[in-house]
């Protein structure tokens, strides 16, 4: 039986009614949490390139368009109420919702080689992951689709208990928010997935917010040479503020390729390379050691590499959430941020209110912002 004392909540949300159309601020209805679910009051959220992917989605996309929907998946909030069978959470807890779950009981969550829970698996499409239904309705009672079972562009949302991480309330909301996707993905890729070693060389292709978080993770792991690769000359100064030691602009190399330049800088090739752009041709430029793919190929092109490169030890790894286990690793990363071992707060370049969310989209599209924090009630 569901807790009948829990009632639907009316609140404001940014609703995406069609691909590439401006979001509209509407009053919506958020249903009570069902079993194993938590209703969260979102304090702040931020805009990620993945949200742009869902906003720009085409009919022939691998993730078919589902409109109207509520976007957003990188956020911080407090528990408003919990559904039946939820343990370890109570109203008022400070939490970070995540698109990837962790149950701590299945064989995958217990293993060291994967962070993908098999008890309540990750799904790209809309719908709560246990029953496939939505917890959102618009003012006329019509259903609204969710995004990655998080939908943080709403003042309230409902998330599966597997996808909620409790954090120390002393962690600043903006900082905790970043750990829910971009910050956690970038740092985790260097720390948990690649396991960057002290004194090693690292190449980071693309110095957006995820790439800069990779730089921070590599610096935290003790890498001695961190090469930032970006077409934007302004990213040289930005990158060095995060820990980049050397900068390569592919448009300024003349007849030399990026790989040639990096090979010369690293005595044969970087030990670790991170592709944070989403372009298959860039993925093939990566170094001799481990190559971590963080960017989803923009045009769906395959990644093709000569088999001889694998024979000589090249390793290509995919990355979902940087290999981190949310409930285990986000509190650790939060502590590292609080003691200044990580300085992810520098990723926040802009802050707006919910009513200005389309401004955040514009700034990201124009390359004017890294992470824009969207405050829900200010």
UniProtKB/TrEMBL annotation:
Residues 210-327 form the Alcohol dehydrogenase-like C-terminal domain. One of its GO terms (cellular component) is cytosol. Residues 36-168 form the Alcohol dehydrogenase-like N-terminal domain. Keywords: Metal-binding, NAD, Oxidoreductase, Zinc. One of its GO terms (biological process) is formaldehyde catabolic process. InterPro entries: ADH-like_C, ADH-like_N, ADH_Zn_CS, GroES-like_sf, NAD(P)-bd_dom_sf. It catalyses: a primary alcohol + NAD(+) = an aldehyde + NADH + H(+); a secondary alcohol + NAD(+) = a ketone + NADH + H(+). Its cofactor is Zn(2+). One of its GO terms (molecular function) is alcohol dehydrogenase (NAD+) activity. It comes from the Eukaryota. It holds the Pfam family ADH_zinc_N. Gene3D superfamilies: Medium-chain alcohol dehydrogenases, catalytic domain (3.90.180.10), NAD(P)-binding Rossmann-like Domain (3.40.50.720). It is found in: Cytoplasm. PROSITE patterns: ADH_ZINC. PANTHER family: ALCOHOL DEHYDROGENASE, OS03G0189600 PROTEIN. Belongs to the zinc-containing alcohol dehydrogenase family. Class-III subfamily. Homodimer. This is Enoyl reductase (ER) domain-containing protein. The lineage of its organism: Eukaryota, Viridiplantae, Streptophyta, Embryophyta, Tracheophyta.
